[in-house]
Amino acid sequence: MKHFDSFELDALIMKGIREMGFEEPSPIQAECIPAVLRGEDVIGQAQTGTGKTAAFGIPLLEHVDPGSRKVKAVVLAPTRELAIQVSEELRKIGRAKRVKTLPIYGGQPIGRQIKALKQGVQVVIGTPGRMLDHLRRGTLRLDDVEMLVLDEADEMLDMGFIDDIEAVMDHLPENRQLLLFSATIPPAIRQLARKYMNKPRYITVSRGEVTAPVIEQVYYKVLESTKLDSLCRILDSESLEQGILFCRTKKGVDELAESLQARGYLAAGLHGDLAQQQRDRVMNSFRRGDIELLVATDVAARGIDVGTVSHVINYDIPQDAESYVHRIGRTGRAGRTGIALTLVTPREMKQLRSIEHEIAGELKPRELPSLEEVAERQQQLLKEQLVETIQSGELIPIFEELVQNLTEKHDANQIAAAALHMAFADRFTGGTDAVYDFGETGASPGMVRFFINVGRNADIRPRELVKAIAEQAGIAAKKVGRINIYDRFSFVEVPEEAAPFVFEALRQSKINGARVNLEPARPRNRS
Ligand code: AMP
Q1: Residue 370 Cα, ligand 1 centroid: separation in angstroms?
Q2: Domains of the chain listed by start with CATH number
Q3: pTM surpassing 0.85?
Q4: For a substitution probing ligand 1, which of 17, 20, 351 has the most ligand atoms within 8 Å of its CB?
Q5: How would residue 526 be classed by pLDDT, with cut points 50, 70 and 90?
Q6: Do the bridges between strand 123-126 and strand 101-104 make them parallel or antiparallel, or are there none, so unpaired?
Q7: Region 217-224: what's the mean pLDDT?
């Protein structure tokens, strides 16, 4: 087993990794990090969920000098969403080292980006079009870049970014290191590698088929922003004896165990930062049945054999099929029946499909309890907390004074509602992730309208479109709304809560053998 220690990284990068709560390198990281540190060009075949961002991010940040005012590394990504996500991850890992990162993408005012660039950043993460725009304006200089990463390269090529990518490449010095990450390696990628890479090392995490135990396997589609509530609804609707919940990171374990405890579940966390004694204590309580839910990292859960585990819940999707098989093997022991539930966010749909492919099996989709039900439960919870606080008699005097003051001019009901709004608005808003802001698409209320770049010319009919959406995004066919098919393009409406899944599943895909591109519609396209 590899440890992050074995890479001999800068203490500040190690601090960043610790703060992320990573326990051990994921399979792609174990191979990729040392190769990149040695200066090799790398082709990594991996998708979201495998830890690919940190696989290139850690050695990239290790390499960058935070004192420099010049751009030292560039990451190209196909979409705004991915650019933001990668940028966030790099910012967090590089925070202790004070590396400055900046996402630049279309749709954001260019003036703001120019200002941010002028302040001196060392890592730029952007979509090819906007990056090129800055290069042409002279607001971005890449003469000192030592490393270029092409993230989700297959998608960038599918989206027709090849010319833009090559144009960006022309602005880089000759001797830069090039890393390429891609879920698939079609001929166009190989060609790109031949043209621009220097003896690339090929790294993949897929090890062919692994065998999953025969137990019921189910997945739920969830959004990052409401994941905890979704989990609680699931927990409340399952007849659960004992469950093991898996999180990716130690930090994730702590946070989830605490949140569950706060909501009244008998939960405890288990990970490698706990002293042996603490670990023994947690395991003993779990064995005795005093703890209902054990929240654990992969490492901590290795070797756990408790016969009464009725449920394994992948709160975070595993990083590879092997880990999936290990995890779900913790249930259904000693001849009992067990069930494995996996929570999947929009961006992780592909990782789910890849796991299914490697275990040569399918996870059954199951519908989450509705958002209204979740909201109702949250309201109930908040009510209970408020009553408890009132009854505790422990209010800070300043607050009471403040309210008294305000009641001279305002209604007490409104003051209370405003205070709640300030404290909890984010718990109740929408239910769509902040990264998925599709803007005004001209759809019916509660729906999002998407534009698809093929129509009758590709023999697309409504039935096929509905089938493709239902299958690829894992949503019920009857949920698909209005469809308009024209000669060369189409529109389809889907419910807001399903929109991120439809977008991620179909923005680059195939229907009827035709390559399709799906994007949020603009209202002026309205028929
Ligand atoms: P990615 O595949 O890069 O999209 O990463 C998926 C998720 O895994 C992100 O939330 C990362 O922060 C997380 N992650 C990356 N590396 C590790 C690791 N070694 N241990 C645990 N979580 C990780």
Answers
A1: 29
A2: 4-205 (3.40.50.300), 209-370 (3.40.50.300), 373-428 (no CATH), 447-520 (3.30.70.330)
A3: no
A4: 20
A5: very low
A6: parallel
A7: 91
